[in-house]
Amino acid sequence: MGVHCEINLFKPQDGAFTPGSTVSGIIKYAVDEETVFNKITLSLKGNGLLILSDERRRRRDNRIHTYRNSEKYVDIENVLHHSDKSVPVPIGAYEFPFNFTLPQCIPPSLKYYTRNVSYVIRCNIKYYISIKFDRPGLFKFAKKMKKEITVVSGIKPRLPMEPTIYGEQKKLFQLFTRKPSIVNIKANIESCVIAPGRTVQLNYEVFNQTNLNLKGVETKLVEIYTFTTRGQRKIKMSQDVKDTDSKSGAITSGNSSNMGLSINLPSDIGSLEYSNLVSRDYFVHITAEIPFPHINATLKVPLQIGDMNDPNLENVDDPPPSYWEVMAEDMKQDGDGEGDDDDDDDNASSEKS
């Protein structure tokens, strides 16, 4: 089939489109011989695809177990030519301008691949302009051409945007004592919603109410991907964000440490929302290092990183339970019995300050 096609996009200055923006350009095609087309269709499409292979089960029973999921974010068609008759399109060059509007609540473009001892994960979110030339006849295959576009998406605030206190309490099991042995971590953050490239500001305090000396306190920013397959199987993959870690000194028994923390966010990171396949979330981890055999106490302060899609959107979610209410309840329980084991009684909470 003698069809030659070209898709010319009018790109934004930074090369990326945003939800609600217009994708426009000119489609040009040339026919070098008279050809019958049933339909010529120009489309804007956006799709997500997740493929997850379980390496653990493959090693166990020598079979590859693959889980999938997919979803559609946008599918808009514009029919340039339609004919039910065998009327050929004359030889010549043709040109059509086009305009498509992206939906508001869509995830950003994504190309993700990772492999470890447990899983192989591929997850792609793609948006593209496509043109399709349909010809009549059973064995006349359609000719297709597409051009991918990059979409960057913002966030809808669901976390507190005012100063908020988060807390974590770790109860240690220790022999030969009825006195509660507790490590408390409290953090006060200015806002949990922040734009890329800005600075996260928080203060934290660690109370060492044990007869042990804590080895130190480590802080870092952690990125967590959560993948969801068609059967609602959820797999999390986490990694530390480069150059965001720090460490303070030891805290002796019965003492506390109060520190300020500033984390400069990289400009190329951001939360991923509006997808049922994948999410990307961020947490500030504040970890009190407890001597072996006890498990460390970690407070995870959630962040939403990104530009707000609509600055007039309000956070309508209820705030987390009061930190001090949880602390008071735990102290009340401590008076009724002995300390609890490490793994069973981690409590987390937050309150607005």
What does this entry show, briefly?
The protein is mainly beta and 353 residues long. It is built from 2 helices and 22 strands.
**Average pLDDT metric:** 86
- Major pleated sheet: 6 strands, mixed
Number of continuous helical runs: 2
Record field, number of beta strands: 22
As an assembly, this protein is: single chain
Helix content: under 10%
Stretches where pLDDT falls below 50 for ≥5 residues? 311-350
What is the CATH C level class of the largest domain, in words? Answer: Mainly Beta
Could you give the distance between the termini? 69 Å
Question: Any idea what the radius of gyration is?
Answer: 28 Å
CATH topology (level 3) name of the largest domain: Immunoglobulin-like
Summing up helix and strand content along with how strands pair, one would put the structural category as: mainly beta
Q: Shape, please?
A: elongated
Q: What series of H and E elements makes up the topology? A: EEEEEHEEEEEEEEEEEEEEEEHE
**Count of separate structural domains:** 2
Proportion of strand residues? over 45%
CATH architecture of the largest domain: Sandwich
Biased composition (Acidic residues): 336-353
Keywords: Sensory transduction
Biased composition (Polar residues): 247-257
Protein name: Arrestin C-terminal-like domain-containing protein
What would the keywords be for this entry?
Immunoglobulin-like; 22 strands; 2 domains; six-stranded mixed β-sheet; mainly beta; 2 helices; 5% helix
Describe the structure.
- This is Arrestin C-terminal-like domain-containing protein.
- It holds the Pfam family Arrestin_C.
- The chain is 5% helix and 53% strand.
- The protein is mainly β and 353 residues long.
- It folds into 2 domains: 3-151, Sandwich (Immunoglobulin-like), CATH 2.60.40.640; 164-352, Sandwich (Immunoglobulin-like).
- Strands 2, 5, 6, 9, 10 and 11 form a 6-stranded mixed beta sheet that branches. Strands 14, 16, 17, 18, 20 and 21 form a 6-stranded mixed beta sheet that branches. Strands 19-15-13-12-22 form a 5-stranded antiparallel beta sheet, with helices on one face.
- It is elongated, with a radius of gyration of 28 Å.
- The model is unreliable at 311-350 (pLDDT under 50).
